[in-house]
Amino acid sequence: MVNQTKSRIIEKNRLTELLDELAQGYHLIAPVRDNDVSFRRVESGSEVTLDYINTVLSPKNAFFPQTETLFRFSRGDSQGFRTEPGTEADREQVIFGIRPCDARSLRLMDMVFNGQYKDSYYLKKREKTTLIGLACFNPDKTCFCPTFGIDPTSGEDVDILFSDIGDRYLVEASTEKGATLLDRFAKFLSELRGDEEQLRKARKAGLVGMKKLDVSAIADKIAPLYEGDYWNSIGMKCLGCGICTYLCPTCHCFDIADVNLDEGGERFRCWDSCMFPEFTLMASGENPRPNRKARVQQRFFHKLKYFHDRNAELACVGCGRCIRYCPVNIDIARIIEDVISGKAGNE
Amino acid sequence: MKATSEEVKTSVKKLFEDGSIGHFIGYEMGSDSLRVTPCFLKSGQAASRLVWNPLCANNLSKYLLDFGKVEGKVGIMVKGCDSRSVVELLKEHQIDRDKVFIVGVPCSGIVDREKLLAVLGVSPGEVVAVEDDGDAFLVTIKEGTRRVKKEQVLRGECLVCRYPTPVIYDMLIGEAVSSLPWVGDDYSSVKELEALSSEEKERYWSSELSRCIRCYACRNICPVCTCVECIFDKKAPRWLSKASDVSENLVYHLVRAFHVAGRCVDCGECERACPMHIPLRSLNKKVEKDILELFGYTAGIDVEQQPPLTTYQAGDLDEFL
């Protein structure tokens, strides 16, 4: 971890003030409790909750919104159609409270949206965002981020990391962007007292026993299982809903459609899911993934093989959302275990 | 006596052995001690995986639609509410009575996982087991056993359940439960919403449905959502935009509520599946109440009883004409 600026602390009772001021200078997105905890635009620090393991929806919405207007069009006078840009993205935003797993997922999303094709809609928001992470000392039972080489207490993929070490937060910048922001808000920060590292170490005890699977050869191991019966048993159970893909911080498939009204309309893109039958439905009526087995298989092959073939990374960060919220308890960690152990091949 | 996992295992094994069934749909333990998952058996040996406990929330009846073409009968485990959706599936000729072997288990309420964790103030990893104990659950946590009153931690639909014992079955495991002591007014929460003004209702539902992510889990898990092609999946013409906004979400949920009118049995699966905690049962419960008041009809009780919205009688209400 690059330490561009020296570590500081912020007293817990000063956090709300800091967030208040952040909200004035930036479009601040932070965890809010409303039924459950989710990332929302906030206008004051008092709206923010820090009592959560992770949010239901991942922060991908801030870069890749579920529905996003790409541009609007209308009939011109004589020159045909006029177009104008869609949703404005020209604002500096700060995401406060992102967990290290979700921060890693953005690195994976970058491979898609900043790869061969540059997706300006995503990239503009990404460039204008500062990520303030919150170290995770109390993961859920379904969390398994260490499997993917993620340290849930690390600031590797964020600009600034906050670590709750009891009566104060340890605040560390890991990028220049983060250091600049900290300088701007230096009046809320104070010098270290000396026992911070020790306190952080003590809190890490909560991470003991976190699931860590050996996925080093998973892409090779899953390849020969394509024809296996294993996926039948998973597909049979699957409801074909979009919970896993929509809650997933790394799932990025989308659809594009037009809204046409008499005088004009708009083109928008929205999340899509490989779990839906019409995802691969062709105009002829042919569907290359005609059943739940084929669709479930695609989801796991994409995460554990195809994405890896293309980007040398697995498309999962072990955040556990799909496991926590699947109504029939399809469990990706268990599937990975079955692939590693060979059980998936014997069924 | 209440049914136990052991009895379920033994009974199902026997059903395979005497040729009564060729397949079985039941529950087995899932990712942790507070999660079960549906399981599909093809032989009696595998019956040892089966469990029955107060976590068995899933209504398995919809899976019967996938077993239309298999050899032999399909056995299925149903609670009271699940049996009522089996009745609906039979009524609508979605399944063949001769192909199904219904194993009923009287149910005294299912645990709401999140309520339980909140009441106990523990994390999911700390719970070892949950057992039914009359008006309470015995919850084994690392430090010992705690008795938690059911009313505090039951799922919403269980708090108003009038059919704890299956209404249709070929075999009943455990003793029938005639009524649940905590069940009072079925519609108290509906009445609260009914009392709101139109503006307040609009505000309430707009706020709730603004969270909808259109994952369609509520529809896909619903045992009476059986259309081969749903209107919302149709691409040409597209009746509903794929854009997720309040007005589109509202159309989706209202059409769905109307489509399951007189067929919904309040198994609560839509609300359980919803990751965004939208109170979907309130919508369905309102329609259920209207149908009861207008036609004196309750869904999922009797296979021979015709649904009010698909039949005509000279005396039907026509105030709206």
Structure description:
The complex is a heterodimer of chains A (347) and B (321). Chain A has 347 residues and is an alpha/beta fold. Chain A has helices spanning 15-25, 100-113, 120-127, 176-184, 196-203, 218-222, 230-237, 243-247, 292-311, 321-325, 332-341, 343-346; strands at residues 8-11, 27-34, 36-42, 67-75, 81-85, 93-98, 129-134, 160-164, 168-173, 254-261, 264-271. In chain A, the strands form two sheets. Chain A has a seven-stranded mixed sheet with strand order 1-9-8-7-6-2-3. By secondary structure, chain B is of the alpha/beta class. Chain B has eleven helices and eight strands. Chain B has helices at 5-17, 80-91, 113-120, 150-153, 156-159, 188-194, 198-210, 217-221, 246-259, 269-273, 280-295; strands at residues 23-29, 36-41, 74-78, 100-104, 127-133, 136-141, 144-149, 171-172. In chain B, the strands form two sheets. Chain B has a five-stranded mixed sheet. Chain B has a three-stranded antiparallel sheet with strand order 5-6-7. In chain B, helix 2 links the parallel strand 3 and strand 4 (100-104). Chain B is globular. The termini of chain B are far apart. Chain A binds chain B through residues 34-36, 38, 56-57, 66-67, 138, 140-142, 233, 236-237, 239-243, 246-247, 255, 257, 259, 268, 270-273, 276-278, 281, 323, 325, 327-331, 333-334, and chain B through 30-32, 35-38, 40, 58, 63, 66, 123-125, 211, 213-217, 219-221, 233, 235, 238, 241-245, 269, 272-273, 275-277.
Largest protein-protein interface: A-B, 43 and 37 residues
Per the principal axes of the C-alpha atoms, what is the gross shape of chain B? globular
Mean pLDDT of chain A: 93
Structure annotation, total helices of chain A? 12
Helix fraction of chain B, binned, reads 25-40%
Share in β-strands of chain A: 15-25%
Strand content of chain B: 5-15%
Uncertain runs of chain B: none
